[in-house]
Amino acid sequence: MLQQEVLLMAIGGGAAAPTQPGTSAQPDDSAGALFGELTLLAPVGCFLLDSDTTVLQTNLVGASQLGIDRLSAARHRLRGFVAQRFLSDFDAFFACALGSPTPVRCQLQLQPSRGAPGFPVTLVGSADGEHVRITAEPAEGRLAALEKSEERFRRIVQSAGEGIWELDAAARTTFVNPRMADMLGYRIEEMLEQPLVRFMDAEGRSILERNIARRQQGMPERREFKFIRRDGSELWARLATSPIFDAHGGYLGALALVSDITQHKESVELAWHQANFDALTGLPNRNMFQERLRHEMRKARRDAVYLALLFIDLDGFKQINDSFGHQQGDNLLVEAARRIGACMRATDTVARIGGDEFVAILPGLTHVQDAERVAEHVIEVLNRPFDLSGQQGLISGSVGVALYPSDAADAEELLRHADQAMYAAKNGGRNRYSYFTPDMQAAAQQRLRLAGELRRAAARQEFELYYQPIINLKSGGIERAEALLRWHHPERGLLAPADFIADAQSSGVLQEIGDWAFRQAADQVLAWQRELGRPFQVSINQSPGQLLADTQAWRSYLDSLALPPRSIVIDVPEDLLNEPAGEALEQLRRLRAMGLQVALDDFGTGHSALAQLKKFDIDYLKIDRSFVAGLTGNADHAGNGDSEGEGNGGDLALCEAIILLAHKLGLEVVAEGVESEAQLALLRAAGCDYAQGYVIARPAPAAQLLALVRTGATPALTADGGVGMNAGARAGAAAVALADVADSGISAA
């Protein structure tokens, strides 16, 4: 079939339409069902006749030949348009065609009306069920008529204002008109044989793949696609696509009429953007904010997490407008929006909902303090001077905090309560944040006071490291110690980490405290090594958040001391193994690259497994005190509720399994929280490498620990496997007796 014929048929020309696979050829009342839309512009007359020659349907050329209205063709019989002298020939021809599945021919003359001159045609007819299909070719022949039609087609296609794109069954380009090539910035020959997907982005390819089956089933469709022009710019187009079939119903491809809707799309997008975003700052406006708030609240309810809404009002903004003018006021708003946005995570939403009013949605919070940290950061950045054409503008921020689901049931109520909390902050003196509920506000103020005290504590030298000795269970010697942070609070006395570490982390002070503790421990272990004349190690607890910071400063400090890095062991929590493998591995890799050793702390309390350990670079495994306490079966230790026999046997078996597998992985094992000589004996018998706990000594200041080590206070291993303190150990223990008093009620952890 000629390409032009295929194109002509696809837009309505050519011979009678083939029957689609799986469909009936019987006529019905739907448009095009009897005749097929592909015959509409055929270059010859096409007729579908009833058994009495009534014209059921005809195409444009057929209606023109008879001089009738195509839409009212059923009022006419084709026999009435046959010249009188050819009626007998027509009757014989029609009778033959009515019973013949193969085409029969007849030459005669048709007359549009009685008395009008006739014109010669060749009729070709065949039966189609109860009907007869007939084509009327002019005397000059079908080819000449087709050539005229093709010439008309070429003029239409070449001058068309829309793109015409023909594709084969594999969706490769077989024809485009000049307009289509121009729309994409290519020459026609550059597009031929190219797959349609070459001109689409990923989204368009996905849509095309999902809909190609519909097209092969003969279903025309209209759809919008985004194409990529040759210069990389986007072309939005609407495609009206019709499938093309051969005479046997086989799918040949498709023809699409392509309209450029880029301007329309841009106008729609601009209108949408104007309806949802603030023109000055580019932030979401109230409309978009409300939609996102409802969406995030649904997610928070589903995931059972907190959502915080911050209502931010600029204090003193009216004075900026009055003093500097509205243009500078606008500049300040733009900069304020940028600063507020910089305080947020990628998942947070900041919106401008009024003149100097902003809101921030903080979804997915596990701790209330996370919202406080953001509020404090916002207040801090708004306190910085604003450059207003060489002059400084000063404002502050009042922030109201409301939580979902505790403070409100729906979006409107949550916004209203955050607004009320903001006014409470203003009434409280401005330049601060306030919670919606009094209890939450009181707790926040307590945390705020504690954060301020923590920041001052380091400068006032209120922190101190206590050290708990760790003995080698084979030699009985004290070779290592764990550094434990203590805070000499001026009012509350000596505080253990459990009393302040969470607040230090939420207020952003933990990194500073951790760096101080690292340097202090490094100084101390260097002094001990010089005093003792032998190697000595100190282990330091660090959180995953601290390890994410720039730990290279630690290595620089160790180099400045000329201290071997292996003198320091970093204790990391077991939960580190549950972080994304790439992040955890990178943290541990940095530590090992510095020459530090790594211990996995409190093993058994998290959700990791021994099988995970082989993925990570770790030196020591520290068995959690809850398992060690169970070795005695004493329910007073670590809350173990099992019976004596079950507690002893089960926890001992678990400790033995951990020790055995850790050794097979090349790790040494430290048992924490050892409180009795019986526990020491069981751990030694199980092959444990190190132990620490109250049976050896409580955490004590550095000088007292050194006195214990220098007296030679090493536990004596008795013949029956029990471990007791020898005379030297008891003397050393007496030297640190004051530590028991000082550390009373403070966990060794």
Walk me through what this model shows.
- It is a single chain.
- With 749 residues, this protein is an alpha+beta fold.
- Helix content is 40%, strand content 23%.
- The chain is built from 26 helices and 29 strands.
- β18 (463-472) and β19 form a beta hairpin.
- α16 (510-532) packs parallel to α18 (552-561).
- Residues 305-438 form the GGDEF domain.
Q: Helical stretch count? A: 26
Oligomer state equals single chain
Overall geometric form: elongated
Helix content: 40-55%
Rg (CA only): 44 Å
Mean pLDDT value: 80
Gap between N and C termini: 87 Å
Give unreliable regions as ranges.
1-34, 633-647, 714-749
Q: In percent terms, what proportion of residues is strand?
A: 15-25%
Q: Identify the strand order in the major beta sheet.
A: 18-19-21-22-23-24-25-26
Keywords:
single chain; 749 residues; alpha+beta; 26 helices; 40% helix; disordered N terminus; disordered C terminus; PAS-like_dom_sf; GGDEF_dom; PAS_fold; EAL domain-containing protein
Blueprint (SSEs and pairs):
Elements: H1 3-10, E1 45-49, E2 55-58, H2 60-66, H3 87-98, E3 104-110, E4 119-128, E5 131-138, H4 142-159, E6 163-168, E7 173-176, H5 178-184, H6 188-191, H7 202-216, E8 221-228, E9 234-245, E10 251-260, H8 262-276, H9 286-303, E11 306-315, H10 317-324, H11 326-342, E12 349-352, E13 357-365, H12 369-383, E14 386-388, E15 391-393, E16 396-404, H13 411-427, E17 433-435, H14 438-459, E18 463-472, E19 478-489, E20 493-495, H15 501-506, H16 510-532, E21 537-541, H17 544-548, H18 552-561, E22 568-573, H19 581-593, E23 597-603, H20 610-613, E24 620-623, H21 625-629, H22 644-664, E25 668-671, H23 677-685, E26 690-691, E27 700-701, H24 702-710, E28 715-717, E29 723-725, H25 727-735, H26 737-742
Parallel strand pairs: 16-17, 19-21, 21-22, 22-23, 23-24, 24-25, 25-26
Antiparallel strand pairs: 1-2, 1-5, 3-4, 4-5, 6-7, 6-10, 8-9, 9-10, 11-13, 11-16, 12-13, 14-15, 18-19, 18-26, 18-27, 19-20, 28-29
Helix pairs in contact: 10-11, 16-18, 24-25
